[in-house]
Amino acid sequence: MSGVSVTKGAEDAAPAAGDDLVVLSNVNKHFGALHVLQDIDLTIARGEVVVVIGPSGSGKSTLCRTINRLETIDSGAISIDGKPLPAEGKELARLRADVGMVFQSFNLFAHKTVLENVTLGQLKVRKTDKKAAEDKARSLLDRVGVGTQADKYPSQLSGGQQQRVAIARALAMDPKVMLFDEPTSALDPEMINEVLEVMQQLARDGMTMVVVTHEMGFARSAANRVVFMADGKIVEEATPDQFFSNPRSDRAKDFLSKILHH
Ligand SMILES: Nc1ncnc2c1ncn2[C@@H]1O[C@H](COP(=O)(O)OP(=O)(O)OP(=O)(O)O)[C@@H](O)[C@H]1O
Ligand SMILES: [Mg+2]
Protein backbone atom coordinates (compact mmCIF):
# COMPACT_ATOMS: atom_id res chain seq x y z
CA MET A 1 0.00 0.00 0.00
CA SER A 2 1.17 3.52 -0.67
CA GLY A 3 3.31 5.11 2.01
CA VAL A 4 1.88 8.57 1.42
CA SER A 5 -1.78 8.91 2.15
CA VAL A 6 -4.10 11.81 2.80
CA THR A 7 -6.42 9.50 4.69
CA LYS A 8 -6.82 10.61 8.28
CA GLY A 9 -5.69 7.18 9.45
CA ALA A 10 -7.83 5.20 11.81
CA GLU A 11 -5.14 5.01 14.50
CA ASP A 12 -4.12 8.68 14.53
CA ALA A 13 -7.66 9.99 14.45
CA ALA A 14 -9.24 7.50 16.83
CA PRO A 15 -11.05 9.66 19.37
CA ALA A 16 -10.90 8.88 23.07
CA ALA A 17 -13.02 5.96 24.20
CA GLY A 18 -16.30 7.03 25.74
CA ASP A 19 -16.64 9.94 23.35
CA ASP A 20 -19.49 8.46 21.39
CA LEU A 21 -21.68 11.12 19.83
CA VAL A 22 -24.27 9.20 17.81
CA VAL A 23 -25.29 5.72 18.95
CA LEU A 24 -27.79 3.49 17.14
CA SER A 25 -28.53 0.26 19.02
CA ASN A 26 -30.42 -2.57 17.45
CA VAL A 27 -32.51 -0.21 15.31
CA ASN A 28 -35.31 -1.69 13.22
CA LYS A 29 -37.71 0.00 10.88
CA HIS A 30 -40.35 -1.23 8.45
CA PHE A 31 -42.20 0.44 5.62
CA GLY A 32 -45.19 -1.88 5.55
CA ALA A 33 -43.82 -5.29 4.65
CA LEU A 34 -40.38 -3.92 3.82
CA HIS A 35 -37.85 -4.34 6.64
CA VAL A 36 -35.83 -1.30 5.63
CA LEU A 37 -33.45 -1.13 8.63
CA GLN A 38 -32.50 -4.44 10.20
CA ASP A 39 -30.75 -4.61 13.58
CA ILE A 40 -28.59 -1.58 12.91
CA ASP A 41 -25.80 -1.05 15.42
CA LEU A 42 -23.69 1.98 14.62
CA THR A 43 -21.64 4.21 16.88
CA ILE A 44 -20.10 7.43 15.63
CA ALA A 45 -17.45 9.08 17.74
CA ARG A 46 -17.09 12.82 18.14
CA GLY A 47 -15.02 14.15 15.26
CA GLU A 48 -15.40 11.02 13.20
CA VAL A 49 -16.29 11.06 9.49
CA VAL A 50 -18.32 8.04 8.41
CA VAL A 51 -19.13 7.48 4.75
CA VAL A 52 -22.15 5.26 4.06
CA ILE A 53 -22.28 3.52 0.72
CA GLY A 54 -24.39 0.78 -0.79
CA PRO A 55 -26.78 -0.06 -3.59
CA SER A 56 -29.93 1.90 -4.30
CA GLY A 57 -32.71 0.97 -1.89
CA SER A 58 -30.37 -0.42 0.76
CA GLY A 59 -31.66 2.02 3.38
CA LYS A 60 -28.94 4.70 3.44
CA SER A 61 -31.30 7.68 3.30
CA THR A 62 -33.67 6.09 5.78
CA LEU A 63 -30.75 5.56 8.16
CA CYS A 64 -29.81 9.25 7.93
CA ARG A 65 -33.39 10.35 8.37
CA THR A 66 -33.81 8.33 11.56
CA ILE A 67 -30.84 10.15 13.12
CA ASN A 68 -32.70 13.47 13.11
CA ARG A 69 -36.08 11.84 13.49
CA LEU A 70 -37.43 12.68 10.07
CA GLU A 71 -38.32 8.98 10.28
CA THR A 72 -39.36 7.21 13.47
CA ILE A 73 -38.06 3.74 14.31
CA ASP A 74 -40.02 0.63 15.27
CA SER A 75 -37.58 -0.72 17.85
CA GLY A 76 -34.12 -0.14 19.20
CA ALA A 77 -32.67 3.15 20.39
CA ILE A 78 -30.86 6.19 19.03
CA SER A 79 -29.03 8.71 21.17
CA ILE A 80 -27.09 11.86 20.42
CA ASP A 81 -24.51 13.00 22.92
CA GLY A 82 -25.86 10.59 25.51
CA LYS A 83 -29.51 11.63 25.18
CA PRO A 84 -32.28 9.67 23.49
CA LEU A 85 -33.90 11.44 20.53
CA PRO A 86 -36.82 13.59 21.70
CA ALA A 87 -40.21 12.77 20.24
CA GLU A 88 -41.72 16.18 19.68
CA GLY A 89 -42.02 19.87 20.43
CA LYS A 90 -39.20 22.31 21.16
CA GLU A 91 -36.86 19.49 22.08
CA LEU A 92 -37.32 18.02 18.62
CA ALA A 93 -36.68 21.39 16.96
CA ARG A 94 -33.48 21.65 18.97
CA LEU A 95 -32.46 18.16 17.95
CA ARG A 96 -32.94 19.07 14.30
CA ALA A 97 -30.64 22.03 14.87
CA ASP A 98 -28.05 19.85 16.61
CA VAL A 99 -28.15 17.40 13.71
CA GLY A 100 -27.56 19.41 10.55
CA MET A 101 -28.79 17.80 7.37
CA VAL A 102 -27.87 18.49 3.76
CA PHE A 103 -29.92 16.76 1.08
CA GLN A 104 -29.44 16.02 -2.58
CA SER A 105 -32.00 18.71 -3.45
CA PHE A 106 -30.77 21.81 -1.70
CA ASN A 107 -34.11 22.57 0.03
CA LEU A 108 -33.44 26.28 0.49
CA PHE A 109 -36.39 28.59 1.10
CA ALA A 110 -37.03 29.95 -2.39
CA HIS A 111 -38.74 33.15 -1.28
CA LYS A 112 -36.00 34.13 1.16
CA THR A 113 -32.59 35.57 0.35
CA VAL A 114 -29.42 33.58 0.91
CA LEU A 115 -28.71 35.63 4.02
CA GLU A 116 -32.23 35.06 5.36
CA ASN A 117 -31.90 31.32 4.72
CA VAL A 118 -28.84 31.26 6.96
CA THR A 119 -30.24 33.52 9.72
CA LEU A 120 -33.76 32.07 10.02
CA GLY A 121 -32.98 29.03 12.17
CA GLN A 122 -30.64 31.02 14.38
CA LEU A 123 -33.43 33.54 15.09
CA LYS A 124 -36.25 31.02 15.52
CA VAL A 125 -34.61 28.02 17.19
CA ARG A 126 -31.44 29.38 18.78
CA LYS A 127 -32.99 32.78 19.68
CA THR A 128 -29.86 34.58 18.52
CA ASP A 129 -30.31 38.34 18.09
CA LYS A 130 -30.56 39.64 14.55
CA LYS A 131 -27.22 41.39 14.32
CA ALA A 132 -25.30 38.43 15.71
CA ALA A 133 -27.21 36.04 13.43
CA GLU A 134 -26.38 38.14 10.35
CA ASP A 135 -22.72 38.46 11.30
CA LYS A 136 -22.48 34.74 11.76
CA ALA A 137 -24.33 34.06 8.50
CA ARG A 138 -21.99 36.34 6.55
CA SER A 139 -18.92 34.75 8.03
CA LEU A 140 -20.22 31.25 7.24
CA LEU A 141 -21.15 32.29 3.71
CA ASP A 142 -17.59 33.60 3.30
CA ARG A 143 -16.23 30.35 4.66
CA VAL A 144 -18.09 28.29 2.04
CA GLY A 145 -17.15 30.76 -0.70
CA VAL A 146 -20.48 32.45 -1.43
CA GLY A 147 -20.14 35.61 0.67
CA THR A 148 -20.89 37.84 -2.31
CA GLN A 149 -24.23 36.10 -2.96
CA ALA A 150 -25.82 36.97 0.39
CA ASP A 151 -28.56 39.24 -0.96
CA LYS A 152 -29.60 37.04 -3.89
CA TYR A 153 -32.41 34.50 -3.99
CA PRO A 154 -31.56 30.80 -4.28
CA SER A 155 -32.80 30.56 -7.87
CA GLN A 156 -30.17 33.14 -8.88
CA LEU A 157 -27.37 30.81 -7.75
CA SER A 158 -25.78 27.77 -9.40
CA GLY A 159 -26.50 24.35 -7.91
CA GLY A 160 -23.04 24.20 -6.36
CA GLN A 161 -23.53 27.61 -4.78
CA GLN A 162 -26.98 26.65 -3.46
CA GLN A 163 -25.59 23.50 -1.90
CA ARG A 164 -22.85 25.48 -0.19
CA VAL A 165 -25.53 27.85 1.18
CA ALA A 166 -27.39 24.76 2.48
CA ILE A 167 -24.21 23.70 4.27
CA ALA A 168 -23.76 27.19 5.75
CA ARG A 169 -27.39 27.16 6.88
CA ALA A 170 -26.87 23.90 8.77
CA LEU A 171 -23.56 25.12 10.25
CA ALA A 172 -25.24 28.30 11.52
CA MET A 173 -26.98 26.19 14.16
CA ASP A 174 -23.65 24.96 15.56
CA PRO A 175 -24.63 21.35 14.94
CA LYS A 176 -23.04 18.52 16.87
CA VAL A 177 -23.11 16.33 13.79
CA MET A 178 -23.76 16.91 10.10
CA LEU A 179 -25.60 14.41 7.89
CA PHE A 180 -25.09 14.61 4.14
CA ASP A 181 -27.36 12.54 1.90
CA GLU A 182 -25.84 12.45 -1.60
CA PRO A 183 -25.10 16.17 -1.50
CA THR A 184 -23.45 16.22 -4.92
CA SER A 185 -25.69 13.82 -6.85
CA ALA A 186 -27.90 16.54 -8.31
CA LEU A 187 -25.01 18.77 -9.35
CA ASP A 188 -23.45 19.31 -12.74
CA PRO A 189 -20.01 17.68 -12.77
CA GLU A 190 -18.08 20.94 -12.70
CA MET A 191 -19.77 21.91 -9.43
CA ILE A 192 -19.18 18.71 -7.53
CA ASN A 193 -15.67 19.55 -6.40
CA GLU A 194 -16.50 22.93 -4.94
CA VAL A 195 -19.00 21.24 -2.62
CA LEU A 196 -16.70 18.31 -1.80
CA GLU A 197 -13.92 20.77 -0.93
CA VAL A 198 -16.15 22.52 1.60
CA MET A 199 -16.97 19.10 3.09
CA GLN A 200 -13.28 18.13 3.16
CA GLN A 201 -12.48 21.30 5.04
CA LEU A 202 -15.28 20.63 7.54
CA ALA A 203 -13.89 17.15 8.11
CA ARG A 204 -10.41 18.58 8.68
CA ASP A 205 -11.89 21.08 11.14
CA GLY A 206 -13.13 18.16 13.23
CA MET A 207 -16.86 18.15 12.43
CA THR A 208 -18.58 14.83 13.11
CA MET A 209 -20.06 13.78 9.77
CA VAL A 210 -22.19 11.02 8.28
CA VAL A 211 -21.97 11.19 4.51
CA VAL A 212 -23.94 9.11 2.04
CA THR A 213 -22.11 9.49 -1.25
CA HIS A 214 -20.94 7.76 -4.39
CA GLU A 215 -17.85 9.97 -4.46
CA MET A 216 -15.22 7.37 -3.67
CA GLY A 217 -12.40 9.93 -3.84
CA PHE A 218 -14.06 11.77 -0.97
CA ALA A 219 -14.52 8.52 0.94
CA ARG A 220 -10.85 7.64 0.51
CA SER A 221 -9.49 10.99 1.54
CA ALA A 222 -11.94 12.20 4.20
CA ALA A 223 -13.52 9.17 5.84
CA ASN A 224 -12.29 7.53 9.02
CA ARG A 225 -14.63 4.66 8.33
CA VAL A 226 -16.70 3.30 5.47
CA VAL A 227 -20.01 1.62 6.28
CA PHE A 228 -21.38 -0.57 3.52
CA MET A 229 -25.13 -1.25 3.57
CA ALA A 230 -27.16 -3.74 1.56
CA ASP A 231 -30.80 -4.79 2.00
CA GLY A 232 -31.29 -2.83 5.19
CA LYS A 233 -28.23 -4.23 6.95
CA ILE A 234 -24.74 -3.03 7.68
CA VAL A 235 -22.78 -5.68 5.82
CA GLU A 236 -19.29 -4.36 6.30
CA GLU A 237 -17.42 -1.61 8.16
CA ALA A 238 -13.77 -0.79 7.59
CA THR A 239 -11.25 1.96 7.08
CA PRO A 240 -11.34 3.28 3.49
CA ASP A 241 -7.99 1.64 2.72
CA GLN A 242 -9.19 -1.73 3.96
CA PHE A 243 -12.57 -1.44 2.33
CA PHE A 244 -11.44 -0.36 -1.14
CA SER A 245 -8.40 -2.59 -1.37
CA ASN A 246 -9.81 -5.64 0.35
CA PRO A 247 -13.61 -5.76 0.63
CA ARG A 248 -14.60 -8.92 2.50
CA SER A 249 -18.19 -9.58 1.47
CA ASP A 250 -19.37 -10.61 -1.97
CA ARG A 251 -21.98 -7.84 -1.86
CA ALA A 252 -19.30 -5.20 -1.36
CA LYS A 253 -17.03 -6.71 -4.02
CA ASP A 254 -19.89 -6.74 -6.49
CA PHE A 255 -20.91 -3.16 -5.62
CA LEU A 256 -17.37 -1.83 -5.92
CA SER A 257 -16.79 -3.54 -9.24
CA LYS A 258 -19.87 -1.77 -10.60
CA ILE A 259 -19.16 1.72 -9.35
CA LEU A 260 -15.40 1.74 -9.85
CA HIS A 261 -15.52 0.54 -13.45
CA HIS A 262 -18.35 2.57 -14.79
N1 LIG B 1 -41.60 6.77 2.94
C1 LIG B 1 -41.46 5.53 2.42
N2 LIG B 1 -42.50 4.69 2.30
C2 LIG B 1 -42.32 3.45 1.81
N3 LIG B 1 -41.16 2.94 1.39
C3 LIG B 1 -40.08 3.74 1.47
C4 LIG B 1 -40.17 5.07 1.98
N4 LIG B 1 -38.92 5.64 1.94
C5 LIG B 1 -38.12 4.68 1.42
N5 LIG B 1 -38.79 3.55 1.14
C6 LIG B 1 -38.23 2.31 0.61
O1 LIG B 1 -37.22 1.88 1.51
C7 LIG B 1 -36.11 1.34 0.81
C8 LIG B 1 -34.86 2.08 1.22
O2 LIG B 1 -34.96 3.42 0.77
P1 LIG B 1 -33.79 4.46 0.99
O3 LIG B 1 -34.25 5.72 0.36
O4 LIG B 1 -33.43 4.51 2.42
O5 LIG B 1 -32.61 3.78 0.16
P2 LIG B 1 -31.21 4.38 -0.29
O6 LIG B 1 -30.18 3.39 0.11
O7 LIG B 1 -31.08 5.77 0.21
O8 LIG B 1 -31.33 4.36 -1.89
P3 LIG B 1 -30.76 5.39 -3.00
O9 LIG B 1 -29.32 5.01 -3.20
O10 LIG B 1 -31.57 5.08 -4.22
O11 LIG B 1 -30.95 6.78 -2.49
C9 LIG B 1 -36.45 1.45 -0.67
O12 LIG B 1 -36.93 0.22 -1.10
C10 LIG B 1 -37.52 2.52 -0.71
O13 LIG B 1 -38.37 2.31 -1.79
MG1 LIG C 1 -30.96 7.60 -0.74
Automatic annotation (TrEMBL):
Main subcellular location: membrane
Domain ABC transporter, chain residue ranges per copy: 22-256
One Gene Ontology term of the molecular function aspect: ATP binding
One Pfam match: ABC_tran
SMART domains: AAA (SM00382)
Keywords: Amino-acid transport, ATP-binding, Cell membrane, Membrane, Nucleotide-binding, Transport
Subcellular location: Cell membrane
Topology of the protein relative to the lipid bilayer: Peripheral membrane protein
Homology family: Belongs to the ABC transporter superfamily.
PANTHER family documented for this protein: AMINO ACID IMPORT ATP-BINDING PROTEIN, GLUTAMATE_ASPARTATE IMPORT ATP-BINDING PROTEIN GLTL
Protein name according to UniProt: Amino acid ABC transporter ATP-binding protein
Organism of derivation: Streptomyces poriferorum
